[in-house]
Amino acid sequence: MSRGPEPIFDAVVRIDRLPASGRSVAVEADAAARLAIAQAMGIVSVEAFSAALTVVPFRGGLRAQGRLEARVTQASVVSFEPVAEHIEEEIDRVFLPAPKQGQQPAAGSEVFIDLENDDFPDHIDGPEVDLSALLLETLALALDPYPRREGETIDTLGLGAGDDGDGPFAKLARLKADDGKKD
């Protein structure tokens, strides 16, 4: 049975070996891992990537809380010049065992729903949770989708995107006007 691609860094927690008091998980990506993260995210580079999580047992699964910090560089959507970004994100995620197929919850059983949180629990199937996927997802969601330098706009490039009559539609309009004069 294939398990899919290898994770970029090791952050696997076994639920069956998790102490009742929980444990700490610290991730500090080395140069090779940062390069792999940058390639996976489609960005220029990752200069720093670290996370500190506290993982505790929670209703047959686990709860991971902590913080992710990263320094990344993306290409500007305007000029393609490098744009540095510092990311600090809080993490609070619950992983619960997936319900077995065909098994309905018993009448009156307790169901976990946190109405204050927009995220529903992630389902896991098996005795371990790979938190590297959670950390990469957190980074991906925190990245600026349209990075650009301070004060940078299309107008600052000096490409003359104004109405100067040199665009293809302006030329087409002149051709149509010239064609109308011949008749």
From TrEMBL:
What ranges does the record give for the region Disordered, renumbered to this chain? Answer: 157-183
- The name of this protein is YceD family protein
Question: Which Pfam families does the entry link to?
Answer: YceD
Record organism: Devosia honganensis
The record's annotation in InterPro entries points to: YceD
